[in-house]
Request: fold
Amino acid sequence: MDSAADMTPNECFHDLLRDIEPSPTTKTDAANAHRTMRAFLRTHASFGSRHVDTYLSGSYKRDTAIRPRRHDGITTRPDVDIIVVTNHSLGDSPSLVVAELYDAVADGYSRIEKQTRSVGVETAEVDMDVVPIIEPFGPDRGLYIPDRALVAWLPTNPPGHTTWTTARNAAAGGRFKPLVKLLKWWRRQNPTTGRHPKGFIIECIAAECMDYEETHYGLLFVRTLERIVSRYLIETLSGFVPTIPDPAVAGNSVTRNVSYEEFRSFRDQAEKDAKTARRALTETDPGEMARLWREIFGPRFPATPSKIAGDLLGAPVSTAAGGLVFPDRPVQPNKPAGFA
Reply:
């Protein structure tokens, strides 16, 4: 019975969520990086005439990021997404638009590369994905992103994704974002075929599959996995990738670039770990309970809940120093120091 979830104290998940939260240093690095890049592009001698607006996007903006990976004792750099609204048009070549942004960024940063839809930037502290978009029909009337491979402009809506995530979190009593973080951490600890689904796709899956009334994170997590297994059963058995609607772009599917092998492997892992999680929920021996949860979440799952009072879940990103807030005035890049 679900009441057996009391065997796994909810505080264990509170502790895990605190532990997998990006550190204050990581958040400060991310904030400084996006502020500096945005100010650099806004004031660039030539690109400044193309610049309309810039803003933070991605998991750091939506507050669904988890702490960076560690490889051989070294912490990897966080990934920061920056949207650059330009005054290009649908008639402009996607390749040339990305190239123009690349040339501007190259004036201040050396480790950069052209990507299919953006410019990748590597610094000592963070990696940035700088994405050009356009508003061909005016503000609030549709955004488009260039795709060099498809030679096309595709509809997109990063601000809509942020608004949607905030709304889902409110509908779930502040538990949607923590659930997403648990799912991302679970994915990291249990790799499946390929890279997808990840990132925003995980958020969309969580929104479709979570129990919006459940307050115990163990039950919330296992019910989400079980719903993933059942909701996408027919498609995966039939050899198809489920169509998961983009909540901010009508007619778009967030899974369109996910292969069948990737999604089937993801669903199979969810099925396997849902069974393990159910066992963990009903386990009466604390040591065995912790062992089972660590099969799912790795060694950061606590053996016993901490005695630390308070709960950071659902707390907004700080607007104090280090918080991911937009600058009141331009911050000039310090070239080359800090940007390699």
